[in-house]
Amino acid sequence: MDGAKRESGRRVLVLNGPNLNLLGRREPDQYGHTTLKEIEDELRSYAASQVAEVRFVQSNHEGELIDAIHKAIGWADAMIVNAASLTHSSVGLRDAIIAAAIPTVEVHLSNIYRREEFRHRSLIADVAAGQITGFGAFSYRLGMEAALYLLDKKGS
Ligand code: DQA
User: Fold this and answer.
1) Is 109 annotated as a binding residue?
2) What is the 3-state secondary structure (H, E, C) of the chain?
3) Where along the chain is substrate bound (predicted)?
4) Which of 34, 47, 83, 132 gives 17 a disulfide partner, CB atoms 3.0 to 4.6 angstroms apart?
């Protein structure tokens, strides 16, 4: 398979929700010291090493995240979604993921099941292919590996 062809089937949107723009300085005991830019830089170079293309969207606004999912239709082959607080409340985001029908990996830096009870419920979990939670910034790398695994599985 030639490079161009492989890349075209390996486009991944990484979507980050409210307050994740503050990573690095936001509750470092919970979320670590790595900034969102550092996470994105690492993912970009990892994706390139795997002949994949990646785009990043972060927004503090539910509607913008939904718009980003709509825009990903026709471009993204997979999505990595950390919906942050909206994980636990947004039917709109859940419905957008269902509507887009793009294979989705849900990620969280913290282990949401070791935290307050209201974080134990994810409205995204059962519409995602799977969930990665609790590995800090490394959750995103695992999320990327999972997304590419899904695409390889689909393509084989
Ligand atoms: C989070 C967990 C959510 O409960 C929280 O609201 C976040 C971040 C995580 O990555 O651990 O903002 O999604």
Assistant:
1) yes
2) CCHHHHHHCCEEEEEECCCHHHCCCCCHHHHCCCCHHHHHHHHHHHHHHCCCEEEEEECCCHHHHHHHHHHHCCCCCEEEEECHHHHHCCHHHHHHHHHHCCCEEEEECCCHHHCCHHHCCCCCHHHCCEEEECCCCHHHHHHHHHHHHHHHHHHC
3) 82, 88, 95, 109-110, 119
4) 83
pLDDT digits (tens, 9 = 90+) for 107-147: 999 999 999 999 999 999 999 999 999 999 999 999 999 99
Domain total in the chain: 1
Q: Rounded to the nearest whole angstrom, what is the distance from the C-alpha of residue 3 to the centroid of ligand 1?
A: 36
Which tokens belong to 109? 């830096």
**Structural domain for 137, as ranges:** 2-155
Atom 8 of ligand 1: nearest residue by CA position: 84
Q: What is the pTM of this model?
A: 0.95
Nearest-atom index, ligand 1, CA of 31: 11
CATH code, domain with 47? 3.40.50.9100
* 119 annotated to bind ligand: yes
